[in-house]
Fold this sequence. Notes:
Elements: E1 4-7, H1 33-43, E2 45-50, H2 57-66, E3 75-78, H3 79-82, H4 89-99, E4 106-110, H5 113-122, E5 126-130, E6 149-151, H6 154-164
Parallel strand pairs: 1-2, 1-4, 2-3, 4-5, 5-6
Amino acid sequence: xxxxxxxxxxxxxxxxxxxxxxxxxxxxxxxxxxxxxxxxxxxxxxxxxxxxxxxxxxxxxxxxxxxxxxxxxxxxxxxxxxxxxxxxxxxxxxxxxxxxxxxxxxxxxxxxxxxxxxxxxxxxxxxxxxxxxxxxxxxxxxxxxxxxxxxxxxxxxxxxxxxxx
Length: 165
């Protein structure tokens, strides 16, 4: 039974802007993000699991407050805070630890095969690839790179989640 969603932040919730750190971005949301988070937060525990270059959890927290999205997330896990980046297991292990969830109770949603999907799959976490734009290459090199589901929108992900619950 699904009890939680782990979500990357860049190009999953907030549109990434090339060459800008999270703090410098305008904070434009991926289409449907606010509605998706509102609905999913009523049903599941939501946790940000993000590789960051110069943003800590406190920075993401402040950005989410500014965007009116902070209330949807129980935890924020960043590679800078943990000292381990996706796809390494340690960042997922920390997210599981703080959330109290098990791998079979979580869906990881992200935009990168090489970090989000590979890392989740290595941990036996269901993985969903969000490809609302084709910014990152879709290289399914091995079975561990293959997501459980590929979606073009957060609405498609909602439908996929509905089909599993």
